[in-house]
Amino acid sequence: MLLAVDVGNSSTVLGLFSGEQLHHRWTLSTSVSRTSDEYTLMIAGLLGRGGLQLDADVTGVVIGSVVPTVTERLRALFTRELSGRNRPIVIEPGVRTGVVIRHDHPQDLGADRIANAVAVSALYGGPAIVVDLGTAISFDAVDATGAFIGGAIAPGVMTAAEGLVERAARLPTVEPIAPASPVGRSTTSALQSGIVYGAAAMVDGMVSRISLELGQGVTTVATGETAGLVLEHCGTIDHHDPALTLKGLRLVWERNVR
Questions:
Q1: What digits encode the pLDDT tens for the residues 86-119?
Q2: For residue 204, what are the contacts with CB-CB under 8 A and spacing of at least 6?
């Protein structure tokens, strides 16, 4: 079975595949202070709940990470645990993705953005936009030929909310839910309106602007840990695919082991 590991700034998502089928999906907090041995215990424990063993049932690993310290700890962990059966594939320069990257500085692209472009190109076709809502909100554009051509990055829903509360002494921390009306009648509901409806409006606005660049027939796919907070209030999203990044990682693994 293939273990795909998507390391983000806030959370790490693991997906266990048998062929194209995603059987298990787990989420851990990302921590640069966690050691390789601690990651081993946590991952082995998650697999164990499904009656699986890391050293016996996992035959391949693919890693997409935006946290270099964690990348190297996981690389060491899986190199050791796989015992030479298959070295872990890490999305980095030199790895085959199957997607043409038309970006001024491709070495600066986050692994998650590359994986998303791989997945949306293969599974939905181009032109397409991936909206990934996590610590940041990234908008990644794939043209009609399936090439990644760039995009935009904005503060994530919770990142923006936490930054606002931190810098404004009298604003309280609120639960990120949509109020009954976009016109807040209390400080709490006004904040909730700005957080949820504001993020949805930003998503719709950016998707509309990028679509003008891509032309007609654009498919928009949303993913990411905070997508569920805002998608029902968006009008430009065609598909919600929570496992899109993991699927992209699986495709990268296949293109490097065959």
A1: 789 999 988 999 999 998 888 889 999 999 999 9
A2: 234, 235, 236
